[in-house]
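hey so i finally got around to running the thing on that chain from the lab meeting. sorry it took forever, my laptop kept dying and i had to restart like 3 times. anyway pasting the input first so we r on the same page abt which one it is
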Amino acid sequence: MPIERKKNKLKTNILLAGGGSGGPVAPLLAVAEYLQNQSSNFKFLLVGTSFGPEKLMAKKVGVDFVFIATAKLRRYFSFYNLTLPLVFLISLYQAWKVLNDFKPKLIFGAGGFTQVPLIWIGWFKKIPILIHQQDVTPSLSNSLCAPFANKISVTFEESIKDFPNTSGLFSGKKKTKVFWTGNPSWLTENPEKKQALKSFDLADKLPTLLVMGGGGGALYFNKLVSTALPELIKFVQVIHSTGPNKNILQKQNQYRPLQFITNMANAYAASDIVLARSGTSTITELAHFEKVSIIVPIPNTHQEANALLLWKARAAVVLDQHSLNPEMFVKIVRKLLLDGDKHKLLSKNIQHLLPKKATEKVSTLVLSILKEIYGQTF
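ok and heres what got predicted. didnt touch it at all, straight out
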């Protein structure tokens, strides 16, 4: 649904709640950036943690940032859990103060324990709420906030059943409030492959393997690639996101180790196969670029449910970290490159896994809430 451009004198304040890692922040800022590009009427504030990457992420798109205390429950024995009641009381007070000072017309969260006090206090203050569920398995923070939300967007269709589908806590209204939108993302461009390869100083004579271990790199992937590299570079060239201060191998003719990949669109465009974890942002990007991928979820995490969905949809090669070894990895990469039919099948299936234009769809939900509650149009 296209967004109408309309000049308004007063700013519409929207509070973004999430932090601790880049995962719950990326879709918030993707939507904020999209709305900023459509109208100068919006003002955003990201409320996150003091220790995560969200302050730098917010600065990148020109969004103001503050942090509050975060009472994150450890689902294992930890003395830290004994302090949670006090920390949570502090976070409630800080959330109240932030909401009083910023006076948002809407709170938008995408998981992470930062959002819980903000959304609970926001509901008490009758501020409309939108939450976004990224992973297949509902996060505890979203489960705690869902009854208070006016609308809920989900990345995967399978997640719709996990949330109440009536409008507002104890309202009894039968109006649908859960929407399958896909996952908002910053990556919308599709660079030309030859130019993308050139940006990494690579030629197009060999296929390219992209290795990503997440924002901080992955020690397991680094060890796997380090051992497998002598065999890999016999038939592929490798772009490897190692994480900060983890360049375990030097640049070679067909190997490009990088602490950070500053242009992920180029990295995807240059690659023929991607080795990655199964975080939702990664899956979103793989679907956008229609990439053949080898997925190794982090054991005993929500990523395993995401990976299972990929496996069921025949949208990726999914492997168990405990059983994967360098020899097996080399064979799988080689086999994928030689099996043209499977290559086409995986590429086709992953591109249909998620709805298109997720950022626009979630932005439309933001606008629909503002129109329903305040009568505002943009």
